[in-house]
C-alpha cells in the first residue's frame, strides 16, 4: 500500500491518500450508488456525510428503493479490487490513450502497464489484500536463553505477538457484538500491527522495544547488505577456505605460493587426520586433533606429504575477469601471510600495501585436475581481454635484469684458453660465481652448444683455419665454433659476462 508507486492506487484509479483514508477507517467508499442521484462509484464519504445519506434513504418520504452500499477498511478495498474487469479496463484505456497527451497520457500508460502485467501472469487484483499472514519458521526468529534464566528473542516475535493479540481481541469483540466504533478501532489497530510487522516505520508511529530501539520488521531483515538475500542466499561462507594478507615471495616459482603453516593445518585437517590414522600414528580422530594442536613434527611431515601435488585456488576480490582466481602449488611458510609471486600480481591487480586474498581447496579429483590443467598460474600467461602477455617483469625485476646484463668497461676480455676464465658449462660458471672465484660483470669463455643470437652472422669470421684432423675452427668477436668435415658443429664457446649466464 505504501510502496511508491502504489499499485492498489494505480489499479483503482484512486489517489493514494484516499486509499489510506479507506484502509485506516477514516472514510467510507461508495461500492454501489443504488438509486441515489448525488453519489458516484468509488466516492469517499465522511462519517457525517454517510449519516446524512442514511437519514435521507430511510426517511418516510424517500423515493430511493435500491439503497446505496458503502464500505470501509480493507474489506471495502478488496471488494473494489474484485469488481475490476481488467480486460475491459485495458480496452478502454487503449482507446483513451490515443486521444490524450501530456500528463494524462503518462498516467494512463502507467495504469495500463500494471494491468497488462496482471493479465500476463493471470494474477487477480484482490490477491493484494491478505486474508491470512504467513508466519516464518522459528529458526529465522530464534529465542535464546540468557545466563540469568531470561530469554532474548527476535524482534519479529514481538511484532507477531502484537498481531495475534489484536486479532484475538477483535474476534472476541465480534463474538460479544461490541459497538461498531470499538470493532473498527480494533481493526485499525490490527492493520497498524500488520503494517509494523511487514515494514516498521513506513507509516505512522514506529514500534519500539526496550531502550527505545525500533523493532526490525520483515522488510528490514530482507533488505540491504546484511539482509537475507545478499548475506545468506547470494553468497555463503564455505568450508575449506580462508583469507589472509599477501606479501611478496621472490624465491617462489611462478606456479607456487607460500601458505602459512597455521592456515594449511586448518585447511587440510581432514586429510592430515586420515593420513595420521592410516599410518598408525594415532588410533582415532580425537587423538589426531590433540596431536595437531600440539604442532608436532610428525604432523608437519604428514602435512607436507598431503599438500604435495594438491593445488589450491587463490582469489582476490573484486574478481573482474577469469584471472582473478588462479591455482598454485602451496609451499609451507612461517608467519601468517600468504606469499605471492610478483609476476602474477598484474593478473590479480594485486599489490602488497595490505591486500587480502582468499584461499580455497579443491576437493574432488576432477576439481584438482582442472585446477592443475586450466587454472595453474604458469598456464595463464596471456590476458583473456587483449591476448597480450599479462605476466611481464616490472620494477625491481627489470632493474635486476639490467644490472645483471650490464657491461662494465674496466673489465678486460680474457683470451680463449685462460684457465681462470674458461668453463665447460653454464653450471660451472654459476658454481664459480657462488664460490666467489669470479665477479658478476667479468668476461668469461663458456661452452654452449645452443643457438646464439648474433648480429655478426652476415659478416665473415675474424679467423678461420683447418686443423690436422680435418675439422675447421672459426673465430668471431664473441664466439669460437668448431665444425667437422661435413660442416656439423662439434663445439661452441661464447664470450659473455657472468651476469648474463646467471
Automatic annotation (TrEMBL):
Taxonomic lineage: Bacteria, Bacillati, Cyanobacteriota, Cyanophyceae, Synechococcales
Name of the protein in its database record: DNA-directed RNA polymerase subunit
Residues covered by the RNA polymerase N-terminal domain: 126-405
A GO BP annotation: DNA-templated transcription
Enzyme Commission code: 2.7.7.6
Summary of subunit composition and partner proteins: In cyanobacteria the RNAP catalytic core is composed of 2 alpha, 1 beta, 1 beta', 1 gamma and 1 omega subunit. When a sigma factor is associated with the core the holoenzyme is formed, which can initiate transcription.
Keywords: DNA-directed RNA polymerase, Magnesium, Metal-binding, Nucleotidyltransferase, Transcription, Transferase, Zinc
Family that this chain belongs to: Belongs to the RNA polymerase beta' chain family.
Gene3D superfamilies, per the entry: 1.10.40.90, 2.40.40.20, RNA polymerase Rpb1, domain 3
Pfam families (alphabetical): RNA_pol_Rpb1_1 (PF04997), RNA_pol_Rpb1_2 (PF00623), RNA_pol_Rpb1_3 (PF04983)
GO molecular function: DNA binding; DNA-directed RNA polymerase activity; metal ion binding
Reactions accelerated catalytically: RNA(n) + a ribonucleoside 5'-triphosphate = RNA(n+1) + diphosphate
Keyword 4Fe-4S among UniProt keywords: no
Gene that specifies this protein: rpoC1
InterPro entries: DNA-dir_RpoC1_gamma, DNA-dir_RpoC_beta_prime, RNA_pol_asu, RNA_pol_N, RNA_pol_Rpb1_1, RNA_pol_Rpb1_3, RNA_pol_Rpb1_3_sf
Gene Ontology CC: one annotated term: DNA-directed RNA polymerase complex
Amino acid at each position: 500500500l505504501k510502496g511508491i508507486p502504489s499499485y492498489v492506487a494505480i489499479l483503482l484509479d484512486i489517489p493514494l491518500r484516499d486509499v489510506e483514508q479507506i484502509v485506516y477507517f477514516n472514510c467510507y467508499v461508495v461500492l454501489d450508488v443504488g438509486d441515489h442521484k448525488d453519489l458516484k462509484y468509488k466516492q469517499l464519504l465522511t462519517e457525517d456525510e454517510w449519516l446524512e445519506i442514511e437519514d435521507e434513504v430511510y426517511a418516510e418520504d424517500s423515493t430511493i428503493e435500491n439503497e446505496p452500499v458503502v464500505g470501509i477498511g480493507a474489506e471495502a478495498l478488496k471488494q473494489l479490487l474484485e469488481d475490476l474487469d481488467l480486460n475491459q479496463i485495458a480496452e478502454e484505456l487503449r482507446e483513451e490513450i490515443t486521444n490524450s497527451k501530456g500528463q494524462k497520457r503518462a498516467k494512463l500508460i502507467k495504469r495500463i502497464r500494471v494491468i497488462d502485467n496482471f493479465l500476463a501472469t493471470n494474477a487477480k487484483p484482490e490477491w493484494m489484500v491478505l486474508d491470512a499472514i504467513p508466519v516464518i519458521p522459528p529458526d529465522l526468529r530464534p529465542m535464546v536463553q540468557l545466563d540469568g534464566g531470561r530469554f532474548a528473542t527476535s524482534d519479529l516475535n514481538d511484532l507477531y505477538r502484537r498481531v495475534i493479540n489484536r486479532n484475538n481481541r477483535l474476534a472476541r469483540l465480534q463474538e460479544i457484538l461490541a459497538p461498531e466504533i470499538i470493532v473498527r478501532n480494533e481493526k485499525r489497530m490490527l492493520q497498524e500491527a500488520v503494517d509494523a510487522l511487514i515494514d516498521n516505520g513506513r507509516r505512522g508511529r514506529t514500534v519500539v522495544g526496550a531502550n527505545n530501539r525500533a523493532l526490525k520488521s520483515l522488510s528490514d531483515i530482507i533488505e540491504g547488505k546484511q539482509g537475507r538475500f545478499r548475506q545468506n542466499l547470494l553468497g555463503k561462507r564455505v568450508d575449506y577456505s580462508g583469507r589472509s594478507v599477501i606479501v611478496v615471495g621472490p624465491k617462489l616459482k611462478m606456479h607456487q605460493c607460500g601458505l602459512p603453516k597455521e592456515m594449511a593445518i586448518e585447511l587440510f585437517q581432514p586429510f592430515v587426520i586420515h593420513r595420521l590414522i592410516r599410518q598408525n600414528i594415532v588410533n582415532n580422530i580425537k587423538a589426531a586433533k590433540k596431536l595437531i594442536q600440539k604442532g608436532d613434527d610428525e604432523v608437519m611431515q604428514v602435512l607436507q606429504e598431503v599438500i604435495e601435488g594438491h593445488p589450491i585456488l587463490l582469489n582476490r576480490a573484486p574478481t573482474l575477469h577469469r584471472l582473478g582466481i588462479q591455482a598454485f602449488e602451496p609451499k609451507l611458510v612461517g608467519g601468517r601471510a600468504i606469499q605471492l609471486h610478483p609476476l602474477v600480481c598484474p593478473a590479480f591487480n594485486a599489490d602488497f600495501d595490505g591486500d587480502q586474498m582468499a584461499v580455497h581447496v579443491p576437493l574432488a579429483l576432477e576439481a584438482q585436475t582442472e585446477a592443475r590443467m586450466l587454472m595453474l598460474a604458469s598456464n595463464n600467461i596471456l590476458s583473456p581481454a587483449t591476448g597480450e602477455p599479462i605476466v611481464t617483469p616490472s620494477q625491481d625485476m627489470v632493474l635486476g635484469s639490467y644490472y645483471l646484463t650490464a657491461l662494465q668497461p674496466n673489465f678486460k676480455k680474457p683470451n680463449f684458453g685462460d684457465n681462470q676464465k674458461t668453463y665447460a658449462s653454464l653450471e660451472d660458471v654459476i658454481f664459480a660465481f657462488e664460490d666467489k672465484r669470479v665477479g658478476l660483470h667479468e668476461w668469461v669463455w663458456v661452452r654452449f652448444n645452443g643457438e646464439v643470437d648474433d648480429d655478426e652472422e652476415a659478416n665473415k669470421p675474424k679467423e678461420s683455419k683447418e686443423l690436422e684432423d680435418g675439422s675447421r675452427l672459426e673465430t668471431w668477436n664473441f664466439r669460437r665454433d668448431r665444425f667437422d668435415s661435413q660442416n656439423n658443429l662439434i663445439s661452441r664457446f661464447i664470450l659473455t659476462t657472468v651476469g648474463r649466464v646467471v
